[in-house]
């Protein structure tokens, strides 16, 4: 049972990236899925989450209108579209499942997003 | 949003010591309080879901307790592999917020 993120990289301010999260060993269709980021040397912040069927999505205020989470249950994939990127978005982005008790129980290894000119 | 305050922010202890990390929520989170251990360069690892319920595979030297707003994580008989950063997180009310972390260094 694991998650693998990809799609990170170096991007200029104002640019865009699309992160992907591939699940293996379990079916994501029964899990709320999230993206949690960690700026260098800093703590953890859940920036986006999506309900099992994709019908509800929630974002932290700092990314509303710029980031978009989506999922493809048939392909066992979750995505995070990052637009209008800022230096403050520089972070490791982790994909994680969110259990019924509100705990982030399965994590990927993360993909690094660096926003710099 | 519920604010989570951890203390201490860092501590140094010796192998065999007993250490306690505390976490306070700005409002009640019932017992929806989770702890994570993170090693450098790795993803966080969930230690418990609900206050006192350790995940399978977490050593019994770890224990967590509390309810409402005040919680603690205790490691009894510290081992070298216990170094890292420990985070608390509330799963009671979205957004599900984390504490700023406690860095545990083994002397």
Describe the structure.
The complex is a heterodimer of chains A (about 120) and B (about 110). Helix content of chain A is about 0%, strand content about 55%. Chain A has about 120 residues and is an all-beta fold. In chain A, strands 2, 4, 5, 6, 9, 10 and 11 form a seven-stranded mixed sheet that branches. In chain A, a hairpin with a 6-residue loop joins strand 5 and strand 6 (about 55-60). The model of chain A has no long low-confidence stretch (mean pLDDT about 95). With about 110 residues, chain B is mainly beta. Helices cover about 0% and strands about 50% of the residues of chain B. Chain B contains no helices and nine strands. Chain B has strands at about 5, 10-15, 20-25, 35-40, 45-50, 60-65, 70-75, 85-90, 100-105. Chain B has a five-stranded mixed sheet with strand order 2-9-8-4-5, with no helix packed on it. A four-stranded antiparallel sheet of chain B has the order 1-3-7-6, with no helix packed on it. Chain B is globular and about 35 Å long. The termini of chain B are far apart. The mean pLDDT of chain B is about 95. The interface between A and B is medium-sized, with 20 and 24 residues.
